[in-house]
Amino acid sequence: MKRDQEPIEKADGPVGMAGERIELRLYVAGQTSRSLAAIDNLRRICEEDLKGRYTIEVIDLLLTPQLARGDQIVAIPTLVKKLPTLLRRIIGDLSNSERVLIGLDIRSVASTGASHGS
Fold first, then answer.
1. pLDDT tens digits, one per residue of 82-115
2. C-beta separation of 55 from 24 below 8 A
3. Is the overall model pTM greater than 0.85, yes or no?
4. In this structure, is residue 107 part of a structural domain?
5. Does the N terminus or the C terminus of the chain have fewer Cβ atoms within 10 A?
6. Partner residues linked to 80 by β-bridges
7. Strand, coil or helix: what is 90?
8. Is residue 117 a part of any domain in this protein?
9. 56-78 pLDDT, tens digit each
10. Are the beta carbons of 52 and 11 closer than 8 angstroms?
């Protein structure tokens, strides 16, 4: 992967009620199967649920390991939601869309119909 800080998608338009775009940063390490899966899964999730109102920046830590310190990256792949408001991190290949959306605070647990009981 010849990526250092390569934007995958950048689109205009509001996200949510606040009218802000969501800025995402995905930390990967080379072209491993997990890194490639995370990139593909993130693209799919964003296109399905954010309809082009997002920015994705992929950072390859094999090329720029010093960037891991700024977002306190301890495992890869890791997705960081930079904006709006609260910083959020999700570790893994992002294969579970619902968990990604809830983890990024884009979708609430209540809106998924999930219950906390057993």
1. 887 778 889 999 999 999 988 888 776 555 454 4
2. yes
3. no
4. yes
5. C
6. 25, 89
7. strand
8. no
9. 999 999 999 999 988 889 999 99
10. yes
